[in-house]
Design a protein that fits this description.
The chain is α/β, with parallel strands linked by helices and 500 residues long. The protein folds into 2 domains: 2-248 and 458-481, 3-Layer(aba) Sandwich (Aldehyde Dehydrogenase, Chain A, domain 1), CATH 3.40.605; 252-439, 3-Layer(aba) Sandwich (Aldehyde Dehydrogenase, Chain A, domain 2). It has 16 helices and 23 strands. Helix 6 (154-165) links the parallel strand 8 and strand 9. The structure holds nicotinamide-adenine-dinucleotide. Nicotinamide-adenine-dinucleotide binds next to helix 8. Nicotinamide-adenine-dinucleotide is lined by residues 146-151, 155, 173, 175-176, 205-206, 209, 224-226, 229, 247-250, 281, 385, 387, 413, 454, 458.
């Protein structure tokens, strides 16, 4: 079995750690690689490499940094299928979905190609007589990123292109469950002409992460993962004086109004709930039906659609399955446990994915599409993030009740409403306490030039990923107020200066 390397100073670098984790092909259940769990010392050495590269990179004109991004974008396009195959092999998602992930990551690179424009800053002439004021957006230094398993290319691409285009250097700790696609991004950036040491990838777990959170040379920490870890990352990084953006878990509701087009709702819901086997932070896991009539109709139609769904390996099978396996054996057990729990809690199990066996892939980590009806807010299957192909239907009596339900949930990542009524949609947009809102759009993932991030316990820290927030996060603002010598000809001032 292959042993994966770290990627340090522009090239692969073997770890000397005695600890490692196993990477699996979730479609077959077979182990495919060992990934080193790097030591604290190796992580500190990677920070040293990034620190040494900082000065040269920070002083490289933004236009030249952008040119690296343009070449990187072209390489991502050339290697889109290779990356997607790696993602599918280690994550399990189907090939077309993996290609979509690469494209969404590539769009952040396109955004970063505009960095000279994004770093122009502000200028105000004559803020006081003969005095001008302007802002400088300067890089922070060495930035760190810690990423989850569910988007091994896209989530690193939310952070790295913006950070390095702004002139920072970076140490990235990918998920130990599927690191190969992330490592390939490092290789492609080197091929694009990124100077050695600007991006370093350290495989590992808590031992490596704790160094990134506490080492005084790290200026910022970007994290995406589950809420308990996001909270820990935010608290620890902040306590060590670093700026931090930590994105956590989700339980995304889709509100279905009685006037919504049922066919459109079902088509949208089924993809949003079961695509990528529900392992998306923007997956819809709760359908909130306004009125029993809507719920009865929707549940009946979903049941029919689910009966036609194919679950199987992400590559090598024609026609392509609708969804693949879960990431690991342990996660499969956890999801199965939630389905058992839903039955115990008294929800009506309409479609049961527990017994699914995929012929020829009997050891894969599969769970079939699962649907619960008559779920109530007191149930744990409603409250907790399951992160699997499990959709729950909650019935409410009115729009106001639906809105309150969404707003009372501890998570606030994404949500959507399906309706034909503009006034209802507008009320929803205005009053829902969620960071990303869709109107007749099931997965409202913002484009790269907008910001990605939730509210409530789905995010810790004020600045979200990419878009204007990303540039703000990865730069330090300096404001210069400037007067040239003729302004002081009148002599010294002893009173508090005010603009004249
Ligand atoms: P996770 O929290 O288990 O792991 C995320 C990262 O943190 C990994 O790199 C992991 O190695 C590291 N980590 C794990 N335990 C740690 C610890 N005790 N100390 C320090 N580091 C630790 O998350 P995951 O299972 O990889 O990803 C799934 C989760 O990510 C879901 O909860 C999902 O909602 C969330 N997610 C959120 C978003 C978002 O935008 N809000 C996007 C993608 C995924």
């Amino acid at each position: 079995m292959q042993t994966l390397d770290n990627f340090i100073d522009g090239k692969p670098s073997a770890s000397r750690s005695e600890r490692s984790a196993t990477v699996y092909n979730p479609a077959t259940g077979e182990p495919t690689a060992h990934v080193p769990l790097s030591t604290a010392e190796e992580t500190r050495a990677a920070i040293g490499v990034a620190q040494a590269a900082f000065e040269g990179w920070a002083s490289t004109p933004p236009l030249q940094r952008a040119r690296v991004m343009f070449r990187f974008k072209a390489l991502l396009e050339t290697h889109r299928d290779d990356l997607a195959r790696l993602i599918s092999q280690e994550h399990g998602k189907v090939f077309s979905d993996a290609k979509g992930e690469v494209t969404r990551g590539l769009e952040v690179v396109e955004f970063a190609c505009g960095i000279p424009h994004l770093l122009k800053g502000e200028f105000s002439p004559n803020v006081g007589r003969d005095i001008d004021s302007n802002s400088l957006m300067q890089p922070l230094g060495v930035c760190a990123g810690i990423t989850p398993f569910n988007f091994p290319a896209m989530v690193p691409l939310w952070m790295v292109p913006v950070a390095i285009a702004c002139g920072n250097t970076f140490v990235l700790k990918p998920s130990e469950k599927d690191p190969s696609a992330t490592l390939m991004l490092g290789e492609l950036l080197a091929e694009a002409g990124l100077p050695a040491g600007v991006l370093n990838i350290v495989n590992g777990d808590k031992e490596a992460v704790d160094v990134l959170l506490t080492d005084p040379r790290i200026q910022s920490v970007s994290f995406v993962g589950s809420t308990p870890i996001a909270e820990y990352i935010y608290a620890t990084a902040s306590a060590h004086g670093k700026r931090c953006q930590a994105l956590g878990g989700a339980k995304n509701h889709m509100v279905v109004m009685p006037d919504a087009d049922p066919q459109q709702v079902v088509g949208s819901l089924i993809g949003a709930a079961y695509g990528s086997a529900g392992e998306r932070c923007m997956a819809i896991s709760v359908a909130v039906c306004v009125g029993d009539e809507v719920a009865d109709k929707l549940v009946g139609m979903l049941e029919e659609e689910i009966a036609g769904m194919r679950t199987g390996p992400g590559t090598g099978v024609e026609p392509e399955p609708h969804m693949g396996p879960l990431i690991s054996r342990e996660h499969r057990q956890k999801v199965l446990g939630y389905i058992d729990l839903g039955v115990q809690e008294g929800a009506r199990l309409v479609c049961d994915g527990r017994e699914l066996v995929v012929e020829g892939y009997e050891n894969g980590f599969y769970v079939g599409p699962t649907l619960f009806d008559r779920v109530t807010p007191e149930m744990r299957i409603y409250q907790e993030e399951i992160f699997g192909p499990v959709l729950v239907v909650v019935r409410v009596g009115s729009f106001d009740e639906a809105l309150q339900l969404v707003n009372r949930h501890e998570y606030g990542n994404g949500t959507s409403i399906f309706t034909r009524d503009g006034d209802t949609a507008r009320q929803f947009e205005e009053n829902v306490k969620v960071g990303m809102v869709g109107v007749n759009v099931p997965i409202p993932v913002p484009m790269a030039f907008h910001c990605f991030g939730g509210w409530k316990r789905s995010v810790f820290g004020p600045l979200n990923m990419h878009g204007p927030d990303g540039v703000r996060f990865f730069t330090r603002m300096k404001t210069v107020t400037r007067r040239w010598p003729t302004g002081i000809r009148a002599g010294a001032e002893f009173s508090m200066p005010t603009m004249k």
